Structures are given as C-alpha cells and as structure tokens.
Amino acid sequence: MTIEYSSINKEGMSKQIADAIRSAIMEGKLVVDERLPSEMELAHRFGVSRPTVREALKRLAAQNLIRTRRGSSGGVFVNRLSWSEAHESLFTTATLLLGMNEIPFDTVAEGRHTLEAACLPLACERRDKTHLTAMHNEIELQRGDNLGDEEFCASDVRFHRTVVEATGNPVLSFQMVGVIDAMQPLMNMITYRMRVRTRIADLHGAIANAIAERDQAGASAALLSLTTYTNELAQLMREQREKQSEHG
C-alpha cells in the first residue's frame, strides 16, 4: 500500500487528503478490499487532526471508493465499485453537465447519433431474440393511443438502451449511459410537443428490422433519419418560440 503523504496545505486539507487516497486507488497502489490505515495513523502521517481525516473519508465514501466495516476485523476498506453504482454516477454527472451548461441541441444530437451509430455493427452481429423482442415490444407500446408523454419518453429511452445492450459489450453499455439515459430524456423534453409518434415508432421499427436482418447499412441509415427528424423538430420548436417572443 502506498499513499503520497506529502505536505498538506492549510486550506482544503480534507479535499487534498481525499485526493491523495483517491490517486492511490486509481493508480492501483491501493487495491480492492485493502484496509486503509486508521484515522489516527492517517492524521499522524498527514499532520492533521482526526476530524480532518474523517471529513476526507466521508468524501471518498460519497464517491463509493471506500466502505466501512465494523467489528474486530473492521476498518475502512477500498471498495469494489459495481456496474450499477458506476452507471448511476455517470448518469448523474452527465445529466448535471447537460442541464447546467447551454450546449446547443444540434451538438447534443450530433454526439448522441455518432456514439450510438458506433454501436450498430456489434448490435447487428450479436443481437439475440431477447433484444429483438424487447425492441418490438417498445415499438408496439409507442404506437398505443393511450400512452402519456412521460411513458412515451421512457419507452424511447428503453428502445435505444436495448440497441446498446445488444452489443453485448459492458464497456460500451457503461459509456452509453450518458448518451442514452441522460441525453435522450433531455432531447425528448425539447421535442415532445412537436413530434409525430407514429413517425418515431416507424423509424424505430426500421432500426429494429435492420438489426434483426444484420443489416448494418440499413440500421445506420434509419438512425440517421431519426436524428435528422429530431433536429427538424428542434428547429420547429425554436421557430415557434421566436414567433411567440415577437408577439409577446
């Protein structure tokens, strides 16, 4: 176990200690399930008070990097981050990033399209009946007359999530959390009033059918058509808002 016990500045001491321990974990100097030194020992080595160390450990626990175990064999241990915890963290970060920054819709749509398009070759190659059934179930749901806007948006996200899951690649699945689970709902919030649901369902159907036939070119073309339509909806929304502003 190696932690960089360099001198700590007086300001932001708990953050600096947390950063030092985090760096040790990220660099593999502290491995999963390894026990950290006690609060007293950390305080001595860093030259700070125990409350300062305690605050640093709280920061690391909030990031799921460490866990506490009580008892005679207890202590603070390096945590094993689960896929679900990583997904949740990435989703939260991506949602906040998109929500707090004025990123042009076209830029978001371009990024989302490019990244999902990269998943299509593997989805066409590795999809199974479970994936195809899930896609078509969502399409059928989207064609329903009594589906609310929120439910339609949720179904839209599930459809594209299934496309990604069809790649069979957990790394791609993780990386696409920010693209599908975070970006798609925000895009839906902008376009839902203008969209024609049957057209979206038809485009989803074209994507699903192409994946079923292992037709990479067809799947890419259908996804591009969906992205183009989404951008058209966003443009209509902008024009509508400008007209309302002029008459407001």
Keywords:
248 residues, mainly alpha, Arc Repressor Mutant, subunit A, Four Helix Bundle (Hemerythrin (Met), subunit A), 2 domains, two-stranded antiparallel sheet, 11 helices
How would you describe this structure to a colleague?
Helix 5 (105-126) crosses helix 7 (149-165) and helix 5 (105-126) runs antiparallel to helix 11. A two-stranded antiparallel ribbon has the order 1-2. By secondary structure, it is mainly alpha-helical. 27% of the residues are buried. It starts with 12 loop residues before the first helix and ends with a helix. The chain is 70% helix and 3% strand. The chain folds into two domains: 13-78, Winged helix-like DNA-binding domain superfamily/Winged helix DNA-binding domain (Arc Repressor Mutant, subunit A), CATH 1.10.10.10; 84-246, GntR ligand-binding domain-like (Four Helix Bundle (Hemerythrin (Met), subunit A)), CATH 1.20.120.530.
